[in-house]
């Protein structure tokens, strides 16, 4: 979608400041909506009351979640303070979103096994890592060859949510498949380097400056590469990007349907299942928090809430009152 000259200047500013592509697109969306909400007035003319009205509109009319409302607020504050160099006062008067966070969809171990059985090759490996290591979808597709620690059976997640790094567990059973995957990447790497104009793998600007030879180092190449070379839209250089994260979601959903799973399954469902099954097996919540990369343990506690309900916690008063035969007769 074509951007207005003003939004284009915001985008250019964010790129110079080394913001990620995802953050840039997200912020621009909420900034654009803010400008439209305020009748297309220039943001430099808008004040605290306009911001509060916008946030209230998002909560009451758009019915966004508390997290989405906070994201929109961050985008507007960035616009006013970082880009325009203005100050923002007290914004405590807006209506905060009351929409509660959805409870996670969790699969049983049998359902996970059935889902994985519908996949093979690198698609199986990707889904198995989502569940076996609790990775976010974007974290998985951004893995580099060097991020797999075969000796200590762990994965280095670099620049995860919030730009944080962490170590996560790695199932020993996946090591042979991962070695095969690295060999496949090596074959592609050999082919790509022979292509005229190949510029190596993409790296954030700071890393590219620090390690100038890294774009042509196998270890920095994506563990799950795209099927073909493409031109980087920002630099115009020929590269091989990582596997498309949206296609991965389609793969997981299709596998779940073929397995006869009627729950709403996405890539994140496998991460939810990872956390829940760890807690079921007796792993303490702080360890699960670290594995998931949650800043606040309260975010992790949602999985204990799931476990304490139903058969795992509260026994229905109906249980034991009616016999199985009586229920069948009905």
Summarize this, please?
Its main location: cytoplasm. The protein is mainly alpha-helical and 330 residues long.
Using only C-alpha atoms, the radius of gyration works out to 24 Å
State the helical fraction: 40-55%
Give the percentage of residues in beta strands.
under 5%
Domains, number: 2
Search tags:
330 residues; single chain; hpI Integrase, Chain A; two-stranded antiparallel sheet; 14 helices; DNA polymerase, domain 1; 3-stranded antiparallel β-sheet; mainly alpha
Description of the structure:
The chain is mostly helical and about 325 residues long. It is built from 14 helices and five strands. The longest helix has 19 residues, at about 175-195. The chain starts with a helix and ends with a helix. The radius of gyration is 24 Å and the shape is flat. It has helices spanning about 5-15, 20-35, 50-60, 65-85, 110-115, 120-135, 135-140, 175-195, 205-210, 245-260, 265-280, 285-290, 295-305, 325-330, and strands at about 150, 155, 165-170, 230, 240. It folds into two domains: about 5-85, DNA polymerase, domain 1, CATH 1.10.150; about 100-320, Orthogonal Bundle (hpI Integrase, Chain A). This is Integron integrase IntI4. InterPro entries: CB, DNA_brk_join_enz, Integrase-like_cat_sf, Integrase_catalytic, Integrase_integron-type, Integrase_recombinase_N, Integrase_SAM-like_N, Tyrosine_recombinase_XerCD. Forms a cyclic heterotetrameric complex composed of two molecules of XerC and two molecules of XerD. Keywords: Cytoplasm, DNA integration, DNA recombination, DNA-binding.
